[in-house]
Every structure is written in structure tokens, then in C-alpha cells.
Write a structure and sequence with these properties.
The chain is α/β, with parallel strands linked by helices. Helices cover about 45% and strands about 20% of the residues. Helix 1 (about 15-25) crosses helix 10 (about 205-220) and helix 2 (about 45-60) crosses helix 3. The structure holds D-glutamic acid (DGL). D-glutamic acid (DGL) binds near residues 9, 73 and 182.
């Protein structure tokens, strides 16, 4: 294994980011941590989110990760400043995509579906303020959605009903862009497309995170050789079966690890 890209999330959500990274950087080895034992992060205190983020970072550093992707909006918005200040490797974070939504919206009304931890963070508020000048931003906590995704209930009636409850008020207020501010939520896009009118633009940051990871690797001369056949290790500290449903492939290995 070459020095890998380390990626962590509170669970399986960050695999939506892993997919984008692997698509763009197929020669890079990766190590992914699903801290499912502690999910959801979104309802935890800032101190707890920071503690989990430090634990995940140290685990990945012990595995020689050359860069760490915090594939979790909640961990990014609550912990990335601390991580950047205290560890030497580069960190890539993910935040709700307010900027592209502000550029796309015609009604000047944007909905953001994210966790309580993200929506209450000061980083989210400063980003919103910076990019959403003249735009109305409706914030909606996605309480319960992460648990449903973590337990394999994406296509269930309960998930659908909860999504209808969350998006309808924002629709009635005129939003035309919906920002998915949690890396678990891209897995809800098929259900969202069924319940939302076709003119709604659903925006997430996965591709942008992969592009940024590529740029930072290149800038620091950290890329694996393009001929390298990559390997991908996934660790979960809860039921590995859930993770196995989201990541498959010959070079993928999913294991249980208590971290
Ligand atoms: N996937 C996460 C995020 O992007 C975490 C959600 C949670 O654990 O509450 O915010």
C-alpha cells in the first residue's frame, strides 16, 4: 500500500465522498473509517464531535495517511479548525454547498437540509453569511435521517414521510435549490427526486471535495504513481454489513475494528 488518503465520517455517509474521490483518483489507496458506533454526530455536543474527530484522525495517522478527508459536514464545521491547527497533514473538509446554490437559484430562496450540529456551528453561519448575500436561506434539521440510512431504511415509508415533512415547508416558501448538507443525504436523492418537483436543483458537495483533494495532493507532490493498482480498506466499529452494502469491488476490504 502507498501512503493512503484517510477518510472518516460518523458512519456510511462519507462513502458518497469516497465514491467521488475514487472516481477522480483511481490510483490512490484509501482507508475509510465509519464511526457508526457514535453516529449520529449531528445531535452531539461540539466537545464530543471534536473528541470523535481527534480519535478518528489519530487512527488514520497511525495508518500513515498522507491527507485526511473529513467526509462529514458535522465534523468539519465543528472540528476542522482544531485539526488543522494541531496536526501536520493537510485536511480537506466538507460544508453545505451554499455558494453554488446561491449562484444557481432564480427565486433567491435556498433550502439547506443538514444536521443540528452543522446548522448550529459558527463555521456554517459565517459561510452562509459570506455567500448568501441577498439570498433567503431556509435551514432544516434532518433529525432521524442518519439513523434511518445507517439501518438500511433508505427506501422505507418512514424515510419518505420524514423527507416530505422536511422539504414541504421550504417548497411552500419558494425554494428552488436544495442543498444536501450531510454526506449521508446523497443516498436519499432517488427518494427526493420522487417527492420534489423537477425544477428543484439538488446540490451536494461530493465532487467538489474530490477535486479539492486532487488539487491539494498535486500541490504537495503527494500523488501515488498513476500506474499504481489501488487498494481500499474500510473499517467500521459497528455492524460491517451495512458498510458492505455501500462499498463493493475487488480491491475493497471491509473489517470490524474497535476504534
Ligand atoms: N455524515 C455526516 C454529516 O455530513 C454526519 C451526520 C451525523 O452523524 O449526524 O454531517
Amino acid at each position: 500500500m502507498h501512503d493512503p488518503i484517510g477518510i472518516f465520517d460518523s458512519g456510511i455517509g462519507g462513502t458518497s465522498i469516497w465514491n467521488e474521490i475514487h472516481k477522480l483518483l483511481p490510483s490512490e489507496d484509501t482507508i475509510y473509517l465509519a464511526d457508526s458506533k457514535n453516529a449520529p454526530y449531528g445531535s452531539k455536543s461540539k466537545e464530543q464531535i471534536l473528541e470523535f474527530s481527534i480519535k478518528n484522525t489519530e487512527f488514520l495517522l497511525q495508518k500513515n495517511c498522507k491527507i485526511i478527508v473529513v467526509a462529514c459536514n458535522t465534523a468539519t464545521t465543528n472540528a476542522i479548525d482544531y485539526l488543522r491547527a494541531n496536526y501536520k497533514v493537510p485536511f480537506i473538509g466538507i460544508e453545505p454547498a451554499i455558494k453554488p446554490a446561491a449562484l444557481h437559484t432564480k427565486t433567491k430562496k435556498v433550502g439547506v437540509l443538514a444536521t443540528k450540529g452543522t446548522l448550529s456551528s459558527s463555521l456554517f453561519h459565517s459561510t452562509s453569511k459570506m455567500f448568501a448575500d441577498g439570498i433567503e436561506v431556509f435551514e432544516q434539521e434532518g433529525t432521524g435521517l442518519v439513523e434511518l440510512i445507517e439501518t438500511g431504511k433508505i427506501g422505507s415509508e418512514v424515510t419518505r414521510n420524514l423527507l416530505v415533512k422536511y422539504v414541504n415547508p421550504m417548497l411552500q416558501k419558494g425554494m428552488d435549490c436544495l442543498v444536501l448538507g450531510c454526506t449521508h443525504y446523497p443516498y436519499l436523492i432517488p427518494v427526493l427526486k420522487e417527492i420534489l418537483p423537477a425544477y428543484i436543483n439538488i446540490i451536494d458537495s461530493g465532487e467538489a471535495v474530490a477535486r479539492q483533494t486532487k488539487a491539494i495532493l498535486s500541490k504537495n507532490g503527494l500523488n501515488a504513481p498513476s500506474t499504481h493498482i489501488s487498494e481500499h480498506l474500510f473499517y467500521s466499529n459497528a455492524d460491517t454489513g451495512v458498510l458492505e452494502n455501500f462499498v463493493q469491488g475487488p480491491a475493497v476490504k471491509v473489517s470490524y475494528q474497535d476504534f
